[in-house]
Design brief:
The chain is α/β, with parallel strands linked by helices. The protein has 2 domains: 1-43; 54-265, 3-Layer(aba) Sandwich (Rossmann fold). The chain has 8 helices and 8 strands; from the N terminus they run ααβαβααβαβαβαβββ. Helix 3 crosses helix 4 (109-118), helix 6 runs parallel beside helix 7 (180-200) and helix 7 packs parallel to helix 8 (215-224).
Length: 266
Amino acid sequence: MAQCTYWNYLLHCLRQTMVQFTSALTVQDFVKVDSLLIGAHQVPPQPDLTFGVEALDNALCLNFGQLIAFQGKSAHAMCTLLCVRAMLPQPLGPDCDVLFVDGGNNFDPYAISDSSVEQGLDTEKVLERLHVSRAFTHHQLACIITDKLPSAIRKFSARLIVVSDITQLYCDPDVRDDDKEDASRIFAKTARALRMFARQYQCLIITTNLEPRNFLLDHTLTRAAHVSVNVEQKASLIQFSLKYPYLQSRTVIAFAPGVKTLEAYL
């Protein structure tokens, strides 16, 4: 009888200890989560790559691990600027090599040179660190992205990848009607691969689409991208229409007086 009472006493003590430990653990977890949430509100995320224009950088925070889809004619000029600013020494830029997959035959080394001078960088060194691969069919573009891009990212330690005018080759007149369904499947696979590579290699991948050509392709790209940005610019007034796959869209207007317009890079 005494032995049974002793064991009951031990069991009671053990239960009390477990309740106290669980309570302490729960309170401690809530404190940690709360402090993290407070810290997140106090310190806004900082962009890994910037345009050098405060209004633009506040409107769109570019971070590694993202796939960003730019729509509109000004998109190419924006990417030209970003290709150069990616090579600025820290803390102004990430000081990294850049990969440019040219799907629209619009890569312009002269525009890169002009932008390099304006950013105070050596033109030859910038061009040496910018690696271009040009596609002439949608099959070539898909092969470059899915098969060649990962090894190139590792080889050059690239943190910025640009795929220019990504839908143009898929909408080429040479793509026959009976091949368009297959082309759409290839495009969807390519878009998913770009999103995966951005996260896997912690790099910023930007696609441009200079004009709307195919609703299905545009929708596929918007769904794959972390953010889809439609860019409209008149003089120094720049309007961003930001679309998210599962969140409400919003419009941001940035005004940068006295700043050279993006069209000047075209």
